[in-house]
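fold-stage: in
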Amino acid sequence: MENDLHSIHTTTDKEVAENILSQCYDLANQAVEAGCELPGSPLDEQQAKVVKRLGCTKHSARGVALTLALYKTIHPQQDIRIHKAEYEGGFSARGFDNQVTVPFLKAKGLPYNVESHWLTQTFSYAGPFLPKMQLKTVPKTAGPDLTTTVNVIEELGVEAAKAVVVSLLCQMIKERNQGNIPLTCPKNLSIDKVIKLLHLHFNSKYHKNAPRLPQVAMYAVYQCLKKDVARYADFQLMPLERMKAANRKSGSVGDIDLQRDGRPIEAVETKLEIAINESIVTEAIQKIATATVERYFILSTKPVAESDMARIEELKENFLRSNGCEIIVNGIYDTIKYYLRLLKTTNDFINNYISLLATDEDLNYEHKMAWNRACDQVTQ
């Protein structure tokens, strides 16, 4: 067993490694989103093929390769094949893996081995990863691909190491994006805690599609109302449409539509961090003027623009008199809070929200990871 002192890396090492890992992750994420390979790699076609195959292999070997490649970027003179401190000229790759690689992969929702990728006997008892090293793994390609990758890095140096890190991360990101992330399901939350949870979730940082979350939350509310509130029992809650679907082309009235006897009866439009103003209300009136809705909600996470309040009230009153449709402008948190009071339990709302979060095509891993983090904050 390695001396514990050898598993301790300097704060500087850790910070530099995390910074490089973050930069490589951003590059990999951009490549995955663009659906292309990053240009300028020092790896030849065969080497790149081996690294890519290793990245696609669900085995701790790819985590080992990632850690060794990352270590090479901050310690160019270190022979990363000598992955144990007990060997002459070696270092504790397992300690570095435990302190840097595993926490990073966990935070990003990427596949990782608990505690360390060196826990398997294949790697924990292995000697230096020299070209003739025979590593018995299942699948069989994992061991040879690891040995080949590490020796390519050792031969070509730092730029090859960075290319390997990016390539491995690309495959792990693809796997994560295609897979299912277990979602935390808190029970018996108070209404105030539910609202706090939604606030944290809505306001996390996302690359895209954050406005989908208020839509999903209101849809989850209506699923509950149909079950618990008599007014909505006979309404038909229409399926949520994709975010890019235009209302006119799809025939929908709002982001969320309810129908009765085949015609729209109530609809909801949601806004994320956009104050409702005269222009938004005017556009809504133009959109629903020929519809049959009796109530049209415009809900936002931000309060109504004070300078437009009087004009908005005037528009609402005039439209109600001329059309018979009541436009309701309100905060989304206040609206959800009100409706939650009508339900038997908040558990139904949370279950509905999680189910939609897990299956909605406009939401991905980052929205799911943010939900789990928000749950940790609210329930701790």
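fold-stage: in (second)
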Amino acid sequence: MRLRDLHKYLSYLIIFVAVYGTASGINSYNTTRMQYPYLWIISPVTFIVPWAVMEICHQIFMRKHIQFVRPLTTITEEEFYAITRRGKRHLLLLDDLVLDATDYAPYHPGGKFIIERTRGTDISKFFYGGYNLEPANNGQNYNHTNYGRIACNSLIIGKLNRGANICMVNIAGESLASQDQLIKTFKFAAVPGKGLSDQIQRHFPISGTGKHYLMQEVTAEGKYVGNIRHYTVSNCMAEDQYTDMCRALESHVAHAQGKQEKIIRLDQSLYALRPSTNFSLTLKAYWDAKGFSARMFQSSTARDGSQWMVKGPLGKSLGVKRNGQHLAFAAGTGAITFMDLSAYVARFVMGEMDEKEASQIGDDFKFTYYVTYFNEEQSCGLRMLRLLKELNSKHFDLVVRLSSQRSPRWDQKYLANCLPATCEKLWICGTPVMNDVFENAFHHLAPKFPYLKDLEVVQVL
């Protein structure tokens, strides 16, 4: 039993004992004197009636869908990092909203340290209950209620770049993304008679990689039900794009090895920067949790025509720089976060982009991708990554770790040997335990690698 539950049940017990003691005392007093034998009823009634009224009001309030306020002030990512870097204000991101939690931190129900630890980051996955920040202490995911939304509304100071529109979609198809069939890529299209937001595209520029879509199930009556979840945009995991990318990479590898002369070109229509009639997201089914992803898998299998609200793309991008070293450490489905960046590098290496897009990658740009899976069967996107590595480009490197093969752990010693002297971006996206290990290691390695102290360089996603 958690401490919070212990406090709750003890409080109920104390209230019950107090009410019972008061009622029995009144009853004993009046029974002896035979004046007002039913006077004892006043005590429980004065407790139960107000409690029932407040509980009914609470339940009605909890069933409402409280919207976040839409600020007029726009803040760029550069301005966000500039303010955060000064260290005086605790700015947070929630979807595309910028929150200033500096004064609120001491009053946060989860503790001040959570606000301090997430300063300068996107807290969406924590706010919607998809993630927790206390793995070592058996921290549990907490889906913030309408009270949390009201608190956030009081902290909002602006929106990041531009807002995003809401649209309703159906599942239009699915494809397997892992051999164990627990990870699938779902294709979404607008519900009949509606259209997708103009901001939804099948391909984004490199400046748009790393953002996410917000999703929730909606009933036929328009009622929002179930959990809200956000999923990272991973356009290259769409079945047609992934197949097209791997086929082109295979031909380039074979050509480089002298095995064939013909090079298969990419279908450029899949990488056009324009609004689309569909988009794809890659999800893993967590059947034990019986949450959003499990419901998505069930709906797709049953073909029940369920509707889903989607809003996005939201949040800040990966912030890829034109030059310098870029490192990513990802575990499991966290690897999906960097698939679009990897695909972008692949297109650059193969010469499959126009001059404008190619200019976003400098001659000394390099993306080194450290990715870990439990085994080959549970991996996703690994075929594309390995083909890209086989091209032996100076712009990309891949280090794969499989836990089932007892590969070296990513601990402080390992990181000390693999971190570069300088780094433009260093991303970590894994389990709560993994993220905690990295943060502790970076604390000790910061004297040797000063950039580990820079919140704009190091980002725990």
